[in-house]
Amino acid sequence: xxxxxxxxxxxxxxxxxVVYQGQETPSYTSGDFKSIDYVRQNKDGIAKAILAxxxxxxxxxxxxxxxxxxxxxxxxxxxxxPGWAQRSLSEGRDVYRFDAEKMTNxxxxxxxxxxxxxxxxxxxxxxxxxxxxxxxxxSPKLRxxxxxxxxxxxxxxxxxxxxxxxxxxxxxRAEKIAKDKELFEKSLKGTEFVMDLPDGMAAYRLTTxxxxxxxxxxxxxxxxxxxxxxxxxxGSIQIYSIRDKNGxxxxxxEVIDNEIHQCKGKGNKAPVEKYRPAVQEFVRQKRFGIFxxxxxxxxxxxxxxxxDMYHLPKGFxxxxxxxxxxxxxxxxxxxxxVIVEGRFDCSYTKITSLEGAPKSVGGYFxxxxxxITSLAGAPxxxxxxxxxxxxxITSLAGAPxxxxxxxxxxxxxITSLAGAPxxxxxxxxxxxxxITSLEGAPxxxxxxxxxxxxxITSLEGAPxxxxxxxxxxxxxITSLEGAPKSVGENFNCSYxxITSLKGAPxxxxxHFDCRKTGIRDIDIELEKxxxxxxxxxxxxxxxxxxxxxxxxxxxxxxxxxxxNNGR
Length: 567
Prior knowledge:
Elements: E1 4-5, H1 8-20, H2 36-41, H3 43-63, E2 72-74, H4 83-90, E3 95-98, H5 105-136, H6 156-178, E4 191-196, E5 202-206, H7 209-219, H8 229-234, E6 238-243, E7 249-256, E8 259-264, H9 276-286, E9 289-290, H10 294-297, E10 299-302, E11 305-308, E12 317-318, E13 322-323, E14 339-340, E15 344-345, E16 360-361, E17 365-366, E18 381-382, E19 386-387, E20 402-403, E21 407-408, E22 423-424, E23 428-429, E24 444-445, E25 449-450, E26 465-466, E27 470-471, E28 486-487, E29 491-492, E30 507-508, E31 512-513, H11 522-531, E32 539-540, E33 544-545, H12 555-563
Helix pairs in contact: 1-3, 3-5, 5-6, 6-7, 11-12
């Protein structure tokens, strides 16, 4: 379900920029498409208007459908918030702020792939509609909501898969075209020489639609086929190609306002490593800013200087983020003497070890989805979230001792929490693991503590203070002894074999869920817990979720229970 968003205007501006790439935003209605000539003359703008409806609906829903993403941050209560936001927060409903600067490289790449694929789909739809109109001698029957209402693209995941397949087909076509030597004669048409580069390479600026089509066919990506023609024509976008002495392209750049937005090799992948020196020299010489595809270029720009992210000097401080996400690497470069003030991301790579990781990371550290078997080499201090989920680790030995955000190790092979951080400012997720005990868990967790779906048989060792939710449902526990004394939000012990609420938290800020347990009469147990029969009188601000078929407690029993208050 989409989150409550404070700055809707900023998200809309971001989505508009995704479609129009800084160009003027045209406006159309269905009534504009009365003539074939009008549609043909305005084809690029109409295709983008069709694309915009999809992006502002489907992509928007995708971006704000999840809470735990870097570009959404929780908003704290303050007097300067709008009334609706203050009411939401006072009622316990979170409000979030969107920050485009915190979009990950992976997400930006996915969005770019989808945008270019759907622009092509809209362009083809217009061509087919024009062909039908010419055949029937009627006005073109174009629908601006064509993409948005197309069942093939009704989720972002569907269209992303389709975009991947589309790029794969283009890459295969490019391999066949590469064997046609006659195409080399076309390579310089519609280009302007820019500079010579190392190893006989050279840079060219592409100035015509024909040159863009050649680049697209040869490289197997989508710079051709009309999607960038108008931007190149009016000068709002510059497209550069890095080519060898035979005229063969090996890297393509999209530059807007002197900033690199994309750098792609063949098949929309990163340029081959042996061409990286030419790619980097071109960027250095042109003094480009680097907005996107930093990994593909291999450079970071800081204090007016460029640094090779694969060979950073000892003691270097990265003032922003450093990402190798989904990069085709099997080991990390030696960054053990480097400090990263922002985020460090090596997730979904083929690395087998964290040796070489930065010694300190100010933002989040993400090594999830890798082939690592140990956390040895991980930084000891992480200011944001630490993600090692969906890896092959069997132990938390080597984990950071201080994590300012969330600690996430779900979906791993760990059997124990020994080595877990001592302090976690956010949430701690060890759900879905093979742990049999909570011994070694942090004793203070600022957010949620989630050990649901594990093999634990006891809550002994659990944190004594949990600021968010505490989830121990679907575990093997038979008692709540050892549970936190205080839980800021919801407490969920449903689907367990507990037979009593003895040991339950004394304070629960949200809901108390005790459905499907081994308790014989849940109403009596709840009254004992709330009245202080087990320890002290419990405080519950939310509701109690229990089986609707629970037996009612007689007034005589309630009186007896209340008489034992404080025992």
